[in-house]
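STRUCTURE REQUEST FORM
Protein name: Helix-turn-helix domain-containing protein
Source organism: Streptomyces alkaliterrae
Requested output: structure tokens
Priority: standard
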Amino acid sequence: MNRKDLDPDESPLAAFGSHLRRLRDERGWTQEELADRIGCSATHISAIETGRRMPTLRFASSADRAFGTGEQFQRRARAARNTPWLEGFPEFVAHEGKASEIRLFELGIVPGLLQTPEYAAAITTGAVRRGMITEQQAHDRTALVAQRQAALQRSPAPLIYAVLDESCLRRVVGGPEVMAGQLDRIATFAELPNTIFQVAPYDLGERRAFDLPVTLLTLPDRTHLCYAESAHQGSLERESRYVLPLLTAYHQLQAEALSQAASVAMIEQLRKGTP
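Status: completed
Returned output:
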């Protein structure tokens, strides 16, 4: 059976998963047996052991009871959760790197997959100044943006649909020079054969389908996933009864948004400094 091996030095999340697997192997327990002892599913155990899911403090406490390790797993869980990533985001990124289709909607800022290094650095610098993240966490964020973009340079390339709220283009991040480079990057993105770019204009009003950033993934087996987040919480949804209505809403958003030609024309106007 193929097993994904984690480097425990890679991150606190990887260290937690690696430690959980090592203790389970030492006791000769299967994932199903450990799941019964903890009170969850074997799939959940697998996701944590491979770093695809963040362990909750409740899970860590149950693991400590199952292994008789005092508060060892609870301390590791606190370290793992002290990261710049929201709940569900690490697992989402793992799926994103394999997806055959990516549909994203963003407002306020340009999404990570389209960001220039300078734009990404400006966003994280602002977060550090506000005390939201540390310098190390800022470094981790910008590094992950580059890794996510590199993961898309594969064959066959995924089909990427990007609908950006008009605010993403008009909000100046990092100053005029950084923003000019970012607009150039989006225009280049729109020219790729595997991309569709659209702007959801301000006058869409109540017809805009989403009020929060949303990303919908279609995996090679045609499974659909949805990742959505607010300022303090992320959520990865797999159940089709929740994901399929969001997919329908995304199609409706595309129908209401500007065409790609009109969207690129808006970028050209902004590059020239015209409203």
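Reviewer notes: The radius of gyration is 21 Å. The chain has two domains: 12-81, 89-113+154-271.
Form closed.
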